[in-house]
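Hallway conversation turned thread

IA: we were arguing at lunch whether anyone had actually written out Tetratricopeptide repeat protein end to end. Turns out nobody had. So, for the record, here is the sequence (452 residues) and right after it the structure tokens. Reply here if something looks off.
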Amino acid sequence: MDADDLDYRARTLTACIPPPLVARLLELGHEREVEFQAGRGEWFCALGWARLLGNRGQREQALEVLSPYVATNWWPAAQARAELLEGWGRAEEAIALSRPYAEAGDRLALVFFARLLARHGHSGEAFMLLRAGIQDWFLADCLVDVAETAGMDEEAAVLLEGRMEAAVPACNDPDCDNRRMEPSNAVDLLATIRERQGRIEEAITLLHTREVTSVNGHDQLADLLARHDRITELRAYAASDYHGHAVQRLAEVLEERDDVEGAIAAYRTFGATPSGMWHVAVPLSELLVRHGRGNEAIEVLRAHTEHDAEDWLVHTLCTLYADHGRSREGLAHLDAIKARRDGKEDWDLFQMRLPLMADCGLLDEAIELTRAHPEGDTRYAAWALSDMLDKAGRTEEADAVLAQHPAVNSSLRAERLIDLGRIQDAVRLLQQPIRKPTTPAWDGAYSTEPPF
């Protein structure tokens, strides 16, 4: 067993049995196969089997399953063992196991170790371990969390202020006002601390200086204003926020207060222009559905996609049509979009027809239409075609379709084989060795080939 090989297979999910299929094997009662594969270097089988044994009270056996993997000094294996130990009330053993990895400089191990220390009364030590890495956004985020437990908010704030003062110009252009700050989230983290300290005005002022206002669909300033019931300020901020995340937070607050009409009005005001509605059409439709107004939700998306038929919006609309028993109307809407595009229908939109046709009892027709589509022989079309054949009870045909693209469909094909009871065939398919891609040394010339 080799740490580099384990890491490559776990990261890329190649030449291994992936977590969903391990769960599927256990669900179907194939425990002996999972146990056997766990002893042959299948990491996800070992992890699933160890957790199952731990849940059954067979703790030492669970640790034995992980031991060969931990012996390679591969951090994910050590982390899994530490998590089990902590869950069983053996925190000191978990700390002792994790410490060498953290001290060796692995940032993932360091963050895990610091949070582990903080959960078990050693938050001061955790803070001191992290402070040297304050320029790393990931470590800085952990440090601010640990600081709260350690009662060291002001110490963390001083570190962050120092990093903000040390910001340098992002480029050599004298007209560029952008600054490069390390950590990149220093302003956000300092605002978090100031809010914890009750210094709300300072937190708000800080957050108004950000260059990036939304991260992962959330706006920290909008969340802060909502938490502190500053609705008037939240309304004003929502009106100026391009992304629509602030108005979404405003609508959520209003809905929580049973002011559904106010929430709808907030979305409609923001979405008065097509560009605004592009950002809020989906959350507005979800709000309407939650309150039994599905037909209104459909109308919002139908009207918007008449002039902006982006696939993700059309997909949401087609799902609503299906959920409300109006699949034929969904097909008619797709027909209208196709007509506006001179009869052309790329796969991204075409595939939305398939579940609607199945709902209308046209599964066989959907299968034939897929085979006839210009992209019907591609690997991504194979996924959809296989699903439909499977639903039609034509399981062997479904497997044959996936077999035409062995390099990319092994996981889905293995799932089909498992459901057919062909466990060994599925395992052999998943464990086929994959040649690792090699990156040639750069010769100094830039590529002129697409997409570059």
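OS: looked through it. The beta strands are 168-169, 179-180, 214-215, 218-219.
IA: good, adding that to the notes. Residues 362-434 form one domain.
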